[in-house]
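Go through this one:
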Amino acid sequence: MKRDALPFMADLTANITIKTLGADQNEIARWDAFVESCAEATFFHRAAWRGIMERIFGHRTFFLYAERDGDICGVLPLAQVKSRLFGHALISLPFCVYAGVAATDDIAATALLDAATAKAHKLDVGHLECRNLSNRRAHSHDWSTQDIYFTFRKEILPEVEANMLAIPRKQRAMVRKGIKAGLTSQIDDGVETFFALYAENVHRHGTPALPKRYFAALKQTFGKDCEVLTVRSPEGKPLSSVLTFYFRDEVLPYYAGDDLAARDLAANDFKYWELMRRSCERGLKLFDYGRSKLDTGPYDFKKNWGFTPQPLDYGYQLIKADAVPQNNPLNPKYRAFIALWRRLPLPVANYLGPHIVRNLG
């Protein structure tokens, strides 16, 4: 049976053509139509990410798609990151937690991965990184993996109160604490308030901030599918803010920031509850809490909300590198840098941060 299947598989592969997305608006529309309809595709597969990668971060992009009989059957967006500090890589995609292969079948997926590998060799990168959401398709034997990234996705129940009761008791008490404190939430038109809270928050944790123009570009590029929600005290002081993506029937809180005073008032918990409540009222079906690293505070926080961690299927094709890169704060070699960054004045950190973080992704 296996021998009989081989010619059939070869025929299917022969019918596939790999192309690179160009500037033609009809081609871009076809890409986005496929992303909207493909079950494996995510918000991070949308074609507009190409412009953000190029304009904001200066990364060269290769948005590959597979075509069979004139129809798109798979996509794989890639960006080239070159850094003396963090190495040379081809990634799908920097700053995007799941933008790996999205395809209608295994044949198209394999053709795209083969094309990406060939491109990685041609560019002479250290490694190719494929950030898949699902592990439905196992990587071949020559792909490396690491088990440090998890995502947290959960159904939004039809009734608001049912979602409240689904939050574990201790975390639910924090949400009610924020409600009793008289906290309010509102949707912001711009990113000024959000960025101030975000930049201060990442600075406290010793991490460089992404540039404000990146968040402004997200808002401008994705329109109604990118929203900022800010929580304020009864006196109107901004306490906590989150920039959220919307895709199909999913809500994805993605970037967030908090004032120091937020903890005492449970503003962070209240923020996510307000987002969940509003999403329920909009009829959305899935709350995506996003990626966190194993054994970190954000990982534990999301578990405490009753979300089950799901391992992310990140695959690494080692081209010139001899090991999977560890460009994350858990790497001991970055501890001194983190400690130093925390001591920098915030304006200095905000000025220097974008030049460093653009190569982290």
